[in-house]
Amino acid sequence: MAHIAIDGNSLTLESALAIAKGTATAFLPASSREKMQDSRDAVEDVLESKNVVYGINTGFGALSSVVIENEQLETLQENLVRSHACGIGERMEPETVLLMMVFRANSLARGVSGSRPDIVELILSMVNSRIAPVVPRIGSLGASGDLAPLSHMTLGMMGEGQSHRFVAGQWELADSGVALSDAGLSPIKLQAKEGLSLINGTSQMCAYLTCTVINMETLCLAADASIACSLEAIKGSHKPFDRRIHDSRPHLGQSISAARISELISNSEIMLSHIDCDRVQDAYCFRCSPQVHGPVIDMIREVRRILEIEINSATDNPLVFVDDDGSADIISGGNFHGQNLSLASDSIAIACHELASISERRINQLLDPNWSGQHAFLAKNEGLESGLMIVQYVAAAVIAELHLLANPVSTSNVPVSMGKEDHVSMGATGAYRALQSSILLSQVLANELVCSTEALDGVSESPGTGVAKVAEWVRKHVSKLNGDRSLTTECEALSTAILDGGLTSIFG
Fold first, then answer.
1. Lower CB count within 10 Å: N or C terminus of the chain?
2. Radius of gyration of the chain (CA)
3. Separation of alpha carbons 133 and 190, rounded Å
């Protein structure tokens, strides 16, 4: 099992997910422990000098002008966590909570937050022991940090509330204190600034957006596989995927999409049937697919870049900077503001709608005899049977869901804290919405693959080598239509298999 250093600089999306899933463990290296201790010493110096510094010996938000005496600072931190732990809604999945904890630990491990190394050590011990505090999803505004969700996380570290723990292959609920004790861990006693450092960051946003990016990278490949199968099923033209077309408009994503599709349809016998075809051009949903899929590929690449910077950033406030000579500056700023993540999430939600929309148009053509050359809705007995008619309806219904989810959240500013926090990103809402959008997209692409694979069975010529592999894989999850039957279970299984990387594994 891999043992991954949490040093605030080198974490990747894949390594963080591996830790959260329990296929790798995490540790705090000595170099990060030293940096954390240096910043903690700077905080202790402030306490000894009795200088007033925001976040250390003051109230928070609109109460920042209230000075707190040293003997009350531990109570201040505990009160901060307990008062902010008021989230609502469905509970976050335990593995998503663990991912959030990994990101919070990595942020603190940069050594500019003024927290003791013990804080990160406890987080990582909980993650390695698979103890995930119960966290209601709703409560973050995507600015000032993910305050409510991270407060629930911190409450679990204090031994309060409930936590999920992984026992005998399944998650079970336990009192947080009991879960910690059974794992040989002790609850943390928060000191000055530490509660604020734990709850003041973009970790929930990063957790949801990480899952979304991984989904979208898989779904971009699935979208290219889907159009390739559908193109072969309607005996469509291969010419729009000629490399020369895309070299003349050299957007990277467009070129990647076109190259994938070309590879999937290579060595096709079906292509030969188009030589004497009277169809001049295929519909946009076929011949413009690289131009639609490609921008999504480009955008997801950029979101990954943004996210990998974010998960290796210090996102709390204030930050503690220690010079080589031991002198320190404690500076208030706004790294907790999740505008970059919010805008990225909005873009992904819109992209999911577009990929689903063009996929549904291809489903329509697969089920239309004028395009497929087969029975209406691919039914064996038209009229008596409805075939795959409602598979399209379901795809259309999903698009309505995606249309609503594509509404931007970054435009939903609500000032809080008596106007002190007067512009928020709503990035936590956006990141969760983007994740849900990606799951819905997988269901539309699954429906297209169901229809294209069924249509391919009615084509006498052999499809491209890659398309044949995809169709064979689909048939492991959805059997051939030999009469009307309920397809819910099979379609959902195919959607899950897509998200699990089944298609990706075919092509290495």
1. C
2. 26
3. 17
Question: How many residues does the structure list for the chain?
Answer: 508
Distance CA 444, CA 349 (A): 14
Element (H, E) at 221: helix 203-233
- CB-based contact 67:52 (threshold 8 Å): yes
Catalytic residue among 54, 208, 284, 432: 54
pLDDT digits (tens, 9 = 90+) for 165-180: 999 999 999 999 999 9
Q: List all residues 6 or more positions away from 67 whose beta carbon is below 8 Å from its beta carbon.
A: 52, 57, 58
pLDDT tens per residue, range 372-420: 989 999 999 989 999 999 999 999 999 999 999 999 999 988 988 888 7
Whether 2-201 shares its CATH topology with 209-317+337-506 is answered no
Cβ atoms of 132 and 95 closer than 8 Å: yes
Q: Which alpha helices (H) appear in 406-459, and where do they start and end?
A: 427-456
Q: Where are the domains of the chain?
A: 2-201, 209-317+337-506
Asked if 289 and 253 touch (Cβ cutoff 8 Å), the reply is no
Taking domain 2-201, whether its CATH number is 1.10.275.10 is answered by yes
pLDDT mean across residues, the chain: 95
432 belongs to the catalytic site: no
Classified by CATH at the fold level, domain 209-317+337-506 comes out as: Fumarase C; Chain A, domain 2 (1.20.200)
Looking at residue 63, what is its pLDDT?
A: 73
In the numeric block, which tokens belong to residue 16? 């963080």
Could you tell me which residues come within 8 angstroms of residue 481 by beta carbon, excluding any fewer than 6 positions away? 378, 379, 380, 387, 388, 454
- Maximum CA pair distance of the chain? 88
Backbone angles phi, psi at 167, to 5 degrees: -130, 125
